Amino acid sequence: xxxxxxxxxxxxxxxxxxxxxxxxxxxxxxxxxxxxxxxxxxxxxxxxxxxxxxxxxxxxxxxxxxxxxxxxxxxxxxxxxxxxxxxxxxxxxxxxxxxxxxxxxxxxxxxxxxxxxxxxxxxxxxxxxxxxxxxxxxxxxxxxxxxxxxxxxxxxxxxxxxxxxxxxxxxxxxxxxxxxxxxxxxxxxxxxxxxxxxxxxxxxxxxxxxxxxxxxxxxxxxxxxxxxxxxxxxxxxxxxxxxxxxxxxxxxxxxxxxxxxxxxxxxxxxxxxxxxxxxxxxxxxxxxxxxxxxxxxxxxxxxxxxxxxxxxxxxxxxxxxxxxxxxxxxxxxxxxxxxxxxxxxxxxxxxxxxxxxxxxxxxxxxxxxxxxxxxxxxxxxxxxxxxxxxxxxxxxxxxxxxxxxxxxxxxxxxxxxxxxxxxxxxxxxxxxxxxxxxxxxxxxxxxxxxxxxxxxxxxxxxxxxxxxxxxxxxxxxxxxxxxxxxxxxxxxxxxxxxxxxxxxxxxxxxxxxxxxxxxxxxxxxxxxxxxxxxxxxxxxxxxxxxxxxxxxxxxxxxxxxxxxxxxxxxxxxxxxxxxxxxxxxxxxxxxxxxxxxxxxxxxxxxxxxxxxxxxxxxxxx
Length: 621
Fold this sequence. Notes:
GO terms for molecular function: O-acetyltransferase activity. This is Trichome birefringence-like C-terminal domain-containing protein. Belongs to the PC-esterase family. TBL subfamily. InterPro entries: TBL, TBL_C. The protein has 2 domains: 177 residues, Jelly Rolls (Sandwich); 357 residues, SGNH hydrolase (Rossmann fold, 3-Layer(aba) Sandwich), CATH 3.40.50. Helices cover 21% and strands 23% of the residues. α12 crosses α16. By secondary structure, the chain is α+β, with helices and mostly antiparallel strands. The strands form 5 sheets. It has an 8-stranded mixed β-sheet with strand order 16-15-17-18-14-19-20-21, sandwiched between helices. Strands 1, 3, 4, 6, 9 and 11 form a 6-stranded antiparallel β-sheet that branches. It has a 5-stranded antiparallel β-sheet with strand order 2-5-10-7-8.
């Protein structure tokens, strides 16, 4: 008889793994249950409770009933400690079907039927109990049912339980069409109709459908596997275009990526309750977690040079300041850099847009983010102080940005512009709102660079980041595209031979007033426009004073155009907030963590190659 092998084994429902799933609640206060962790991952937390009386319970409740996949298992990583009086033996009370110090039960709260209990804490070796890990078949807890919405931990007085991870794991198999069977995901976490599941990694021989196979180790995040052996043999990329020649390669088995933010940033991202939490895609559903793991498994490998990791950037920056100015995509660039810096980045502080002073009570916890209210006034300006004295600022604007840049002397944040040492700028995809045909793009670039020359201090450096195109149909993308041309071809008519890299302003203007079927390109958002015209920034800077032109850099990130995967896509529909079920697909913004992290990596490499490092004390010119 042939052995059926699993294509992937993954936590299909992560109830707690550094933070509680946003679809779940618990019955204890944060003071009693959520404690800061001493685990290596910064901002990770553990769920801890102390049982004070016989029959005391820690209850975790799902906001929706969960229908589990067949052969699923509850996986718990935990430790137990107890006062001396509790160690002498488990309770013998007839009312407790489980005689251990702590027992676990899963049930459907609506039925209130008696539930089987599984023993967890049966003995104590010392007051510093080691971590234990159990994998309990769902059938043992639920019997013939696969439905539950409540987990109960019942303990004896004097016993403390600490949970590091709590999840439902299952072996997923590949259907004949090349996708996972949707029925193998928890029912309430299924993606919306028409949403394609990512292809899953093939299992190693001998996995036999179990969840204990050990896939090959991963290369560090954003470091190609081949670079580990040839790292010292390749020169550093000079970022003059040499970094654009290369390919995306899969440097990690997605099965090895447990929690995406831990893998990418070495820390836990917060659980947001605001309207923009869907950009933390992996927190939304089991399918989104799979999608994020696949996206993170790909690394950019330049052909003839290597990219330095972000770590060490704080020391390089020294006491200087870096300002990000742009729209929500530039805000993503800011957050990617800050999160990649890990422990070198401090608490984010929100600044008033007019006064640039720290808002009263607006300090954001280091393990949180102002992205919770992105788009509102509270988050337009913020700063993060770095370990070595530097400061990274963010000014986020949208449709008003270009008018403000053309009149910098009038903006409320002019003082910030005049004081920074490095300015990162991008006007993104908002230009077509004010200039649909892009007829005035070069004129606008000329006006803005003139203002920057006048307002920036003589030693300041300017970096303009190029803009990536969006990807129609990104909800079905499971891996990077083969080339940038493939990405751009998706914006052309089917079977058409239109010149993708030529812009017809008259045709674009006409398209704004006609139906989409009359358009030469399937590009309703003019995604091709910005990257076709952005060379105007470098050309305009070259016409300024020589000392300004030498301090102006174009950061070309066009290699990210191949990343049709990793977008937010339908993540906002996958969450538990029913009001978001009708949100349109987002094929422009990327998930955190995700491909946008390469903007931060590229920026760090450009600055290290082209801008002098900070002196030991003070800032370098």
